[in-house]
Amino acid sequence: MANEEDDPVVQEIDVYLAKSLAEKLYLFQYPVRPASMTYDDIPHLSAKIKPKQQKVELEMAIDTLNPNYCRSKGEQIALNVDGACADETSTYSSKLMDKQTFCSSQTTTNTSRYAAALYRQGELHLTPLHGILQLRPSFSYLDKADAKHREREAANEAGDSSQDEAEEDVKQITVRFSRPESEQARQRRVQSYEFLQKKHAEEPWVHLHYYGLRDSRSEHERQYLLCQGSSGVENTELIKSPSEYLMMLMPPSQEEEKEKPVAPSNVLSMAQLRTLPLADQIKILMKNVKVMPFANLMSLLGPSVDSVAVLRGIQKVAMLVQGNWVVKSDILYPKDSSSPHSGVPAEVLCRGRDFVMWKFTQSRWVVRKEVAAVTKLCAEDVKDFLEHMAVVRINKGWEFLLPYDGEFIRKHPDVVQRQHMLWTSIQAKLEKVYNLVKETMPKKLDGQSGPTGLVSGDQRVQVAKTKAQQNHAFLERELQRRKEQIRASAVLPGVRIKEEPMSEEEEDEQEGEEEEEPMDTSPSGGLNNRLANGLPAGRAVGGDSFNGHPPPGCANTPVARELRAFVEATFQRQFVLTLSELKRLFNLHLASLPPGHTLFSGISDRMLQDTVLAAGCKQILVPALPRPDNRVRGAVAFFDVSCAKVRSTCSLG
């Protein structure tokens, strides 16, 4: 009570809210002009406004008779801006800078806390401000002067260079076809400074009439600052509760409202989602989530939804991968869309994403480089595919996002069978489009029928080692049988082929055995078991040049001579070569040749082999040790008969 007595109420003032000029009242500020030097008495020549941008331009006259005005400078500026000839488009029609332009800029976008007050007869009348603008002098006439100067220089240069030319020069025109604009690119373009400037320039100017401070029209407009119903009982604007009155005086700022989280326009709440048909609910959920187990989908749709209807609907928008549902590619990439990274059409993107999904039906791991090499898509597109359904693991690759759902596989075998048939047809299309070889394709892990799809890479290696150990005895017997067959065939009577040991123990055992013996290269030695140079006699005679000389007449061509020279030079450096090694050296030789050389005409393996045999070399079959995968391969080696001793190495295929 003591505080209230120390601070008594001196006067009560009624406050009125006037709204007649609420949407038209602006506050002009002149920051480069002191308050004591106003523009009230200066003639205003014109005024215009862009209401949406709250941009104002005023033209004010300059007192050219003032002793502080430099007339020569004013004439020079007018001459630079308009040139010597004055017309209707001239900025300064009097050939003298006799006016200046003021342009406005917004000081703040939130004017809800600002109002113009007028106190009269013990009443305070408030009118909200629509905008607060600061006006500064504009120097756009300098830009016009520079443009005029450049135009005059260009006209002079064009006049000097084209006086004698009767025809115009032919100009090259480049035609470019723009790619379809994606949604992200459109949003970036709309938010760019260039687009905003263009949009602002498109708004038309609204021309205004300026009335001075002491004009009768201005006095009439100032009456609208008073609340029109202040004398009657109709003014109920401020008959509010204290909290509502305080909210009107201090409304929340727009910045605070923007900080509140707002759901995107393309996101629906669960309440809104459940008002849609079931098929649309499933499609929207799968399009946003990308990968989802069937149990999670049922929990999102609600307990009252029939699972049979959900199964029928999910198969229209998703595919089964490792027991989980992955949204179909054509849902994410509609027909007329394209890649935001490379501009690739939707058809190619769908095919590439289907390949990634199919790879995950074969294994839990996928390597991005392998996918890019097959699909021929850019790395960004492939990364988008993988991010939809997988997570990256360092030094391993991309692992499927969700664990194998064996429970769904066991409960719905009919759906699994139907999806398996769909994947079989998709696989056939992918093999045709990407030229996939069936022999080199990974063996299906039957991820749709059991948990074997969870086998990791380390487990596979361990299984392979176990199988190799189990088959060791079989491999040993096969090796001995092959060795006996080779010894019995007696390739050449005077040639002994030394086999390279596969381990240090075998090498120690073979060190004390046979020494390399000179090879008998005489043609009259004869061959055992009806073999001609290691092959049946029937294949070494007649027109077959498999182990003989090329057909007559082909050795005199430039290509044959160049190939013969390469073969002879190669076997002078290395006496024994396998066919694959010889082909590698030949490819290196081609790389060193200049473009247009005769050897670029095309050399087949048969022609290379015939040239080697025609050069006097012999062909032998060298056995190879068996592989851990139970495959035993032989190798073909050529050796030069001019060398005294030969040592051949076994190729492991």
Automatic annotation (TrEMBL):
Record the organism: Oryctolagus cuniculus
Q: Where is the composition biased (Basic and acidic residues)?
A: 146-155
Superkingdom of origin organism: Eukaryota
Q: What is this protein called?
A: RNA polymerase III subunit E
Query: Which regions are flagged for Acidic residues bias?
Result: 502-519
The record's Gene Ontology biological-process terms are: tRNA transcription by RNA polymerase III
The ranges of region (Disordered) come to 146-171, 494-554
Which gene specifies this protein's sequence?
A: POLR3E
Bias type Polar residues, positions: 521-531
DNA-directed RNA polymerase III subunit RPC5 C-terminal domain boundaries: 444-624
Record Pfam families: RPC5 (PF04801), RPC5_C (PF19725)
List the GO terms this entry assigns under cellular component, sorted alphabetically.
Answer: RNA polymerase III complex
InterPro entries associated with the record:
RNA_pol_III_Rpc5, RPC5_C
